[in-house]
Design goal:
The structure is a homodimer. Chain A has about 300 residues and is α+β, with helices and mostly antiparallel strands. The first copy, chain A, contains 10 helices and 12 strands. In chain A, the strands form 2 sheets. In chain A, strands 1, 2, 3, 4, 5, 6 and 12 form a 7-stranded mixed β-sheet that branches. In chain A, a hairpin with an 8-residue loop joins β1 and β2. The longest helix of chain A has 20 residues. The relative contact order of chain A is 0.19. The interface between A and B is large, with 42 and 42 residues. β8 of chain A pairs antiparallel with β8 of chain B. Chains A, B: Its EC number is 2.7.1.39.
């Protein structure tokens, strides 16, 4: 068995418009890398973080906390050293904390001979999410671990379903360089919704899942609506309405807030359209004068990948 | 082209626990029959209703109202005579009004050479539903017309998706002989719900749709939960909790209120289990002393069927 492993930890888009707190999808071309080593020393030691200023202390780092959750459920008596090469910016809304939490637990699981199921790995990684946002949400960690589109059918008991990924689906993500904390963007949400909006939302979730299985891009497009969260959260994101309408005009199937923002995602059929959408998004932020990162990616159907 | 047609008009289960106002399924072994004839006389004439005491006046009968909606959208200059042989009891919660509305418009459409799409037929039939309940709901008329499981993804614009039906799925329906008006059972619902319950509901809708496509009976079972409507409406149905727990103990995948009640439905894998569930349901109402009708049925994947 290997003593050291290097993994790719994908960025993820949570919510996907209609699926607040339940849907997510993993990306191929955006993500961190981590190197995890087995050591005789007990516990988790984070030896290096490159690319971002994040705490090295195990209890303050999401990878450390998620790793400790795995360790405490394991009969392994040694420990792990972790190096983190961050490329996903914290607070970007594309699962930066989830990438680190899931990368840590998946790498450790592989080094231990895979004693834990994907569902258990999600539960460990959710401890990292709790540290990052105050809430044990699973909509980023589930797609990072399972790959593709995932549905968190239920949180109690935790029940995660991997959904089919249509072949031609591409994601475009633009990250305007402003920070919104997940905890802040949760606070502005209302705790009640109208039954009428709820009906629209579960109609769209049903439509999106049906569209993903039948690879019906028109149905996917019609289902990418959010009547509940987007109207509230989008006010925190500069020029959201312009970016969205420019994306749809450029041919995107749908466009909305990635996770709790500020990143905005769009799904498109085919790479060419996804790139046109990227150009349309950039044009808006160039005009407004807000710096951004932009990504075009296929869907990562595999989840955390072993690099070496 | 035929001048007369006899059709089978299936009973339907709306909501299917998690899918309030959006999901429905058509049945094979429970339904009305209608005979519809082309006449040179304009308008709709209901010449006969057997099996139930319902108004013959066109404007007061759901089949009449739905038929008039079709007629007014058509360039056909004659009319139709309708005979209705009711077997589904009004107010039973298994789509009695929908069976009559959809039977009328589907039969007329066939006699006219099918000028209208299924979606248009649903819109005509919804006028009948409005007469019956005050609301143009589509969750019974959609499965009666499309067959199988249907999702009303959106009401505005109307968007209906036919969902895959797993081969071994059976429905059991028990109708306790008490009347609940659809309009009354709507009144007791709250107009707001908690966001937390909404998340559970759209997680379950997503899970149910995924389970129907992948024919994953366990997932279907886990998804047949209703955290929003059932806790409120079930108080109108005598011994609901006992019937539900007896059904689940007998092996049902799930059990809930059919439409707005008072009928209770269960889904099972295989006929044998569906019949055990029927026996378990009957035992409860036999003990309580409430008369009932009981049905065990395969899913009708065809919708309205031409008998002759």
């Amino acid at each position: 068995m290997k003593n050291e492993i290097k993994v790719f930890c994908p960025a993820t888009i949570a919510n996907i418009s209609c699926g607040f707190d339940v849907l997510g999808v993993a990306l191929d071309n955006v993500g961190d890398e981590m190197v995890v080593k087995k050591t005789s020393k007990k516990g988790i030691t984070i030896t290096k973080i490159e690319g971002q200023n994040l705490p090295l202390q195990t209890h303050k780092n999401v990878a450390g906390v998620a790793g400790l959750a795995l360790l405490s459920a394991s009969d392994y008596e040694g420990g792990f050293e972790i190096e983190i090469y961050k490329k996903i910016k914290a607070g970007s809304g594309i699962g930066s904390s989830a990438a680190s939490s899931t990368g840590a637990v998946c790498a450790m699981n592989k080094l231990l001979g895979e004693p834990f199921s994907n569902l258990e790995l999600v539960q460990f990684a959710m401890k990292g999410e709790e540290l990052a946002s105050g809430v044990q949400h699973a909509d980023n960690v589930a797609p990072a671990i399972y790959g593709g589109f995932t549905l968190v059918r239920s949180y109690s008991p935790l029940d995660i379903i991997k959904i089919n990924t249509p072949k031609k689906l591409y994601a475009t993500v633009i990250h305007p360089q402003i920070e919104i904390k997940t905890s802040d963007s949760r606070k502005i949400l209302k705790t009640t919704i109208s039954l009428a909006d709820g009906i629209k939302q579960w109609g769209n979730v049903g439509g999106l899942i049906a569209g993903l299985y039948t690879e019906d891009y028109d149905l996917i497009s019609r289902s990418l609506e959010d009547h509940i969260i987007e109207p509230i959260r989008s006010i925190l994101i500069p020029a959201f309405d312009n970016v969205k309408s420019a994306s749809l005009n450029a041919g995107a199937l749908g466009c909305g807030i990635s996770g709790s923002g500020p990143s905005i995602y769009a799904l498109s059929k085919g790479k060419e359209t996804a790139e046109k959408v990227a150009q349309a998004m950039q044009n808006i932020y160039n005009k407004v004068g807000i710096p951004y990162d932009i990504h075009v990616s296929t869907v990562n159907t595999e989840g955390i990948k072993t690099i070496s």
